[in-house]
Write a structure and sequence with these properties.
- The protein is α/β, with parallel strands linked by helices.
- The protein is built from 10 helices and 8 strands.
- The protein starts with a strand and ends with a strand.
C-alpha cells in the first residue's frame, strides 16, 4: 500500500510563484515511486491573486487542496494549521512557496524517511542574506542553544519532513504556537539533516522583514527559555553587590578624609542604577505575563475563511 505524504506550502502574496512551485515540485515527485503525494496550500490572507490561483490548481488537480485564513497570522500559524487540519497522512513536508527550498531535495527527504528517520530537516549551506541578518541568526542560535530548553542546528530551516508519529505529538500541544521548528526539535526525535543551497527568489520580495524576524526570535526565546528572567536576577545581584562595595569604600574614604561626601550625588547615581534595573525587569516580566495571558484567553489560533 502506498504511503501518503502531503506537501504543505504557506503563501502570502505569492501569486507569481504559485504555479512555478507547483510545476517544479511535480517534476520531482513524479519520479518518486510508491508514494501518494498531495498538496495543501495555506493562504495567509493574501491581498493579491494567490487564492484564485490556488482554486484553479485545485480544480485541475485532485491532489491539491487549500485553505485561506480570514486574517493574516504569519507563517508559524500557517504551518500549525496544517498539523491540525490534515488527516490520514503518513508524513508532511513543509516548504516555502518562493523556491528557496529546492524541490529536488524532497527525494532525499523521502529516502531518509524510508530508512527510519521520523524527522528530516533541510539545512541551508549557502546564505544570500545580509551580514547583519546572518550575525543576528548566529546570536539567536547561540543564546537558544546555550540558555534555552532546546538544542537547534544552526541554519536549520522549516523545510523538513515529519512523520505521522511526530504529527500526532504536535497535535497534543495546547499552547499558542510561535516557533514550529522549535517545537519539533523540542520533541527530541533523532533528526537527519540534509544540506541544500538556496537560490534567489524568482519573483517578488521576501515577506520576512526585520520586524517579523525580531518578533519571531523574541517570542521563540521567551517560549523556550527562562534565561532572560535569570539574567535580570544575576544583574540585580551584581549591581547590588557592587553598590554595597561602593558604599563601603566610599564611606571609608569619607571617614579618613580623602573625599568630601555628597549625599545628593551619591543617591542620584544609585537611584538611576536601580531604576534602570527595575524597568528592565518589569519589561521582561511583562512579556512572560503577556504570554500567559494570551494562553489563558483560549482564543482560536486561526480562523479559516475558505477551503478548496
Amino acid at each position: 500500500m502506498k504511503k501518503k505524504v502531503c506537501i504543505v506550502i504557506p503563501c502570502f502574496n505569492e501569486s507569481e510563484n504559485i504555479n512555478l512551485i507547483f510545476n517544479e515540485t511535480n517534476k520531482i515527485i513524479k519520479s518518486i515511486k510508491n508514494i501518494d503525494f498531495s498538496y495543501l496550500f495555506v493562504d495567509d490572507s493574501s491581498k493579491d491573486d494567490t487564492w484564485d490561483l490556488i482554486k484553479i490548481l485545485a480544480k485541475k488537480n485532485k491532489n491539491v487542496n487549500g485553505h485561506k485564513f480570514l486574517t493574516n497570522h504569519g507563517k508559524e500559524i500557517a504551518l500549525y494549521s496544517a498539523i491540525k487540519e490534515i488527516k490520514n497522512v503518513d508524513a508532511i513536508i513543509f516548504m516555502d512557496a518562493d523556491l528557496q527550498h529546492p524541490p529536488k531535495v524532497i527525494s532525499q527527504f523521502i529516502k531518509e524517511w524510508q530508512s527510519g528517520y521520523l524527522v528530516v530537516c533541510g539545512k541551508r549551506i549557502k546564505d544570500e542574506f545580509s551580514k547583519f541578518r546572518n550575525l543576528g541568526s548566529k546570536l539567536f542560535y547561540y543564546l537558544l542553544n546555550n540558555f534555552g530548553e532546546i538544542k537547534m542546528q544552526s541554519y536549520s530551516t522549516d523545510f523538513r519532513l515529519i512523520d505521522k508519529k511526530v504529527i500526532n505529538y504536535l497535535k497534543e500541544f495546547k499552547e499558542n504556537i510561535s516557533f514550529m521548528r522549535g517545537l519539533i526539535d523540542l520533541l527530541g526525535f533523532e533528526t537527519k539533516y540534509i544540506d541544500f543551497k538556496s537560490s534567489n527568489r524568482h519573483y517578488g520580495n521576501s515577506k520576512f522583514s526585520f520586524r517579523y524576524l525580531f518578533s519571531l526570535a523574541t517570542s521563540s526565546f521567551i517560549n523556550f527559555s527562562l534565561f532572560p528572567l535569570r539574567i535580570v536576577g544575576y544583574i540585580g545581584l551584581l549591581v547590588s553587590t557592587l553598590s554595597l562595595f561602593f558604599l563601603f569604600f566610599y564611606s571609608i574614604f569619607f571617614f579618613i578624609g580623602s573625599y568630601e561626601f555628597d549625599l545628593v550625588i551619591f543617591l542620584f547615581l544609585l537611584s538611576f542604577i536601580f531604576m534602570g534595573l527595575i524597568f528592565s525587569s518589569l519589561g521582561l516580566i511583562a512579556l512572560y505575563i503577556g504570554n500567559i495571558h494570551r494562553e489563558t484567553l483560549g482564543r482560536p489560533t486561526y480562523l479559516i475563511d475558505k477551503r478548496v
